[in-house]
Every structure is written in structure tokens, then in C-alpha cells.
Amino acid sequence: MQNVSEQSLEIASKRYQAGRLAFENGQYREAVENLEKASALLVRNSRLGGEVQIWLVTAYEAAGRNEEAIALCKQLQRHPHSETNKQARRLLYILQAPKLKRPSEWMTEIPDLGALSDNESKVRIAANPPKSSAKKKPAETEFVDLSQVNTKDNRFIWVAITAIGLIISYLTWLAF
């Protein structure tokens, strides 16, 4: 009998670690599956059982399953482990907080590429070759109307040339 519980604890621990890793990699559905299986193998009122369930709450929320996250958080508020029930109260406060409206100009919309089949994505990629490999068009020559250009003599150039000449003469005189 003791051997079975050690086996289930080992399996639960592996599922828990796999669930955390999946969560951290953004694979929320897989995280929920692993954390649910780990939670089923553990005593829910244990410290490890509570920790797994807290992770499950965050995975539910990340996977868009907010009602389940809130319901589990409410259960965890009565957990015997003090750290677990404190985290559950904090998470519940966050989950039930009103969602703020963000102006659309703050957001960048990312297209859903999951709906594309593999063939469509390859066709789109081939249709839009990278800019570095694309042949560059020769730049069109732009003609300037010289009647619109100020062609008067600019006195600044003569002043600058005179100043440079005086400085060179002075430096030459100082060198001898």
C-alpha cells in the first residue's frame, strides 16, 4: 500500500513539473491537463496539493477558463496550509478585479495563424519573398528645375577660405 502512494506521488510530481514547464512556455492547455492530473493524484489538503492547485488556477486563467479559476480559488481560500489560502485570496482578488478598457491605439493586433493550413502558410511565405533577396528597382532620376534654385554667390565660402588661409599663414609663421 505504501508503495502505491509513493508511485502516485512520483507521477504527480512529474506531472506537476511538466505542467509548470508547459505554463512557462505558453502552452496553457497542456499545462492545465498536466496540473489537473497531478492534482487528482495528490491529497488536496496537503501543502504540495495546494501548490499544484494554485498553479492550476493560473493555468486556468491563462487558458481563458476564468470561471473555473475563480471557483478553484474560492475552494483554496479554505485550504489548511496558510500560504496556499493566502495566495488563493490574492489570486481571487486579481481574478475578480474589473477589466480595464484599453484604447485601440495601445494594442497591436496579432493575426491568428492557427487557422491557416500548412500549405496556405507556405504559399503566403513564397508569395512574399524576403526583402533582402528581392531584386531592387533602380532609383528613378529626379530632375531639379534650376530656375527654382538659388544660384547667387554665397559669401560664406569666401569668408571661410580667407579664414583658413589666415590660420595656415599664422601657424606657418609661428613654426619658424
Write the layout of secondary structure elements.
Layout: H1 2-24, H2 28-41, H3 47-62, H4 66-76, H5 82-95, H6 118-127, H7 155-175
Helix pairs in contact: 1-2, 2-3, 3-4, 3-5, 4-5
Quick structural gist:
Helices cover 62% and strands 0% of the residues.
Description:
With 176 residues, the chain is mainly α. It has a domain at 2-95: Serine Threonine Protein Phosphatase 5, Tetratricopeptide repeat, CATH 1.25.40.10. It contains seven helices and no strands. The protein is elongated and about 100 Å long. It starts with a helix and ends with a helix. The mean pLDDT is 81.
Largest sheet: none
Taken as a percent bin, the fraction of beta residues is: under 5%
What is the highest CATH level, the class of one domain? Mainly Alpha
Query: Span between N and C termini?
Result: 106 Å
What is the averaged pLDDT score?
81
Number of helices: 7
**CATH homologous superfamily grouping of one domain:** Tetratricopeptide repeat domain
Number of strands: 0
Radius of gyration (Å)? 35 Å
Mass-distribution shape: elongated
Helix percentage: 55-70%
Q: Please identify, by name, the CATH architecture of one domain.
A: Alpha Horseshoe
Query: Could you name the CATH topology of one domain?
Result: Serine Threonine Protein Phosphatase 5, Tetratricopeptide repeat
> Helix/strand-derived class?
mainly alpha
Order of helices and strands: HHHHHHH
Pfam families: TPR_19
InterPro entries: TPR-like_helical_dom_sf
Organism: Anabaenopsis circularis NIES-21
Keywords: Membrane, Transmembrane, Transmembrane helix
